Amino acid sequence: MAASGPVPALFPDVTMALLSFALRRLAVSLPSLLLILIGVFALLQLAPGDTVDALLAQMGGGDPVQIQQLRTFYGLDAPAAVQLGRYLWRLVQFDLGFSAIYGKPVAAVIAERLSVTLLLMVASLWFAAVGGVVLGIIAARKVHRWQDAVISTVGLLFYATPAFWLGLMGVVVFAIKLGWLPAGGFEEIGSGKTGLLRALDITHHLVLPTLTLGLIFLSIYLRIMRASMLEVSTLDFVRTARAKGVPDGAIVTRHILRNALLPLVTLVGLHAGTMLGGAVVVESVFTLPGLGRLAYESVIQRDLNTLLGIVFISAVLVIAVNFVVDLLYARLDPRIRVKGH
Amino acid sequence: MAALKRYFRSPAAVLGLTLLVAVVALALSADLLFPRNPLGLAGRPLQWPLDNPRFWLGTDTAGRDIAAQIFHGARMSLLIGVVATSIAIVLGILVGAVSGYYGGVVDEVLMRVTDAFQTLPNFLLLLLLIAVFGSRIETVVIAIGVVSWPAPARLTRAEFLSLRNREFVEAGRLSGLGDLRLIFGEILPNALPPVIVYASVVMATSILLESALAFLNLSDPNVPSWGNLVGQGRSVLRTEWYVCAVPGLAILLTVLAVSLVGQGLNDALNPRLDEQ
After folding, report:
1. What is the DSSP letter of B52?
2. Which of A165, A215, A304 to mutate to test the interface with B (most CBs of B within 10 A)?
3. Nearest C-alpha in A relative to B121
4. pLDDT tens digits, residue range A83-100?
5. Is A179 on the interface with B (CB under 8 A)?
């Protein structure tokens, strides 16, 4: 049936097996999520000062009675274990608590910022994956020739470049010297643009951040892609295809690429967290109002509730990405499904 | 010897070693060439490189000699890299060895903890640790080590899993060696090479992590760090962009050196047919 070629089979029973495989992987990640929340909660207990202290610092002090009332209001007078229990219980009800600094629910604060970070991450990931795959293929096809040397060297350079520095130098060249791109921000404030014009404006603002965050991952992907292209192209089934007279282009796209993509897909999952971490730095360089910047600001302002919320959302995001990666992996590599049964 | 020969046959590996030796030379000569405090006032602020023969890399916003900070910063970066990497590798080996050797419930628990660490973005955990424990340089280095151990742990565990039932281990077990002797005396020496090669990756990331923290003003401001300098130069990026450019280049070259040496070691120790 589907054994004759690399066409993915989509029969109901296979889909079910795929789904149960992915669900099982998802179930394994739940203990990790719980561990993270307990660990981070315990960690934050060690932090000097709590939300009320931070709030008081902002207001410039307060009288002891008021302070006590605030502590009671935020539930900070209970023992740590009770606080943790309450926190987890509220979390089950999708309540992330209240941010004293921003004066609104943490969920609302995060929701405002999440879309910027997601947009940045998805754009960077696409750029890195497509660029990495294309350059990796070129390098592997011209292995040990000048094209390979140039691509590999540039890849190595970007791998070693600190993201914040790459961003700053990008600002110097493209924003300050050439004036092609804005130096920061998510969109032109107060321009009143809507619809397509606004989308274009945002795209214009996101070019530099996307390149900054994406180039580092592109350099990793291109190296992996090159290596795995070279490895797969020596395998027997490729030789068979060649002997059968399959045209060169078809061998690359249908036989080699599909198999060479597997390690790349794994890496994308592993990098989901790294990319979020990179977003903290990149959003700070380009003053983007995203989740990463929020994390940084919460550290500075000791807004522990928001910080805990960001930790939770980030972990969920990483788990979600890995879930998608598992599905993709199983689709690309039919052998996984056999193991999944 | 064959491995050494293979190493020196690769131009990239030789370039990496040369760069690394150069960075070490910067670090070693820092006190000799710039005996004064690199964070002290040296002259008029924001002099361009080569404008004043005394400051061939210029001065920063606070009138400090950039060259002095680059030399002393090399020492800091290498120190941070080596110490944080050692912490991460030792922790990783301990967790990985115990996990891979004993298996079962111990393995399950340790791997869930490792999962948890890998699910939480590294840099976010680092921010949390800094927020809680402060940003003295010792704390920063330990924190970087603590967020970097999961990958070496997984690597060690995989090696242990494949080695623990080999004949030489069985022989040791039959001759009455205890678990500790088997783990550290028999299996670990054989499991070590890939972990040591991986240490170069950890070191490169450690240096990048510290510089990112320093750039965000979250590392120790009282040590000469390249990242600190980039962070300070940001305010004058529009006109005096060299304040950011110079230390960033230093970070780039150091990380490049460490990665190239690691890659070279890897290729020299595991010669692959397709690279011939």
Report:
1. B
2. A165
3. A273
4. 888 888 888 777 888 887
5. no
CA nearest to B209 within chain A: A162
Q: How far is CA A1 from CA A6, A9, A246, B239, in A?
A: 11, 9, 21, 66
Average pLDDT score over chain A: 81
- Quote the pTM value: 0.86
ipTM of the shown complex: 0.86
Half-sphere exposure of residue A272, counting CA atoms within 13 Å on the CB side? Answer: 21
Record: contact B124-A310, CB cut-off 8 A: yes
Tell the CATH topology of A110-340: MetI-like fold (1.10.3720)
Mark B90-122 as b/e (b = at least 16 C-beta within 10 Å). Answer: ebbbbbbbbbbbeeeeebeebbbbbbbbbbbbb
Per DSSP, the residues of A289-324 read -SHHHHHHHHHHHT-HHHHHHHHHHHHHHHHHHHHH
Give the number of A-B residue pairs with CB atoms closer than 8 Å.
145
Angle between helices B104-119 and B150-163 (to 10 degrees): 150
- Residue in B262, B87, B89, B88 with CA at minimum distance from that of residue B191: B89
Of A236-240, B24-28, B37-41, give the lowest mean pLDDT range: B37-41
Measured between beta carbons, which residues in chain B are less than 8 angstroms from residue A29? 115, 119
**Over the range B143-157, which residues count as b (16 or more CB within 10 Å of their CB) and which as e?**
bbbbbbbbbbbbbbb
Given an 8 Å threshold on Cβ–Cβ distance, is B119 in contact with A40?
A: no
Asked if B230 and A315 come within 8 Å (Cβ–Cβ), the reply is no
Cβ of B204 under 8 Å from any chain A Cβ?
yes
- Give the homologous superfamily in CATH for domain B72-258: MetI-like (1.10.3720.10)
* Closest-CA distance of chain A to residue B144, Å: 13
Put simply, the answer to whether A29 touches B255 (Cβ < 8 Å) is no
pLDDT digits (tens, 9 = 90+) for B192-237: 888 888 899 899 999 999 999 998 888 888 888 888 888 888 888 7
CB contact under 8 A, A295 and B127: yes
Q: What are residue B55's DSSP bridge partners?
A: B52
Q: Which residues of A touch B253 (CB under 8 A)?
A: 160
Q: Is the pLDDT of residue A7 over 70?
A: no
Chain centroid to Cα A20, Å, comes to 25
More confident residue, A49 or B249: B249
Of B124, B131, B259, Cβ closest to residue A156 = B259
- Kindly list the domain boundaries of chain A, sorted by start residue: 110-340
H or E element, residue B21: helix B11-33
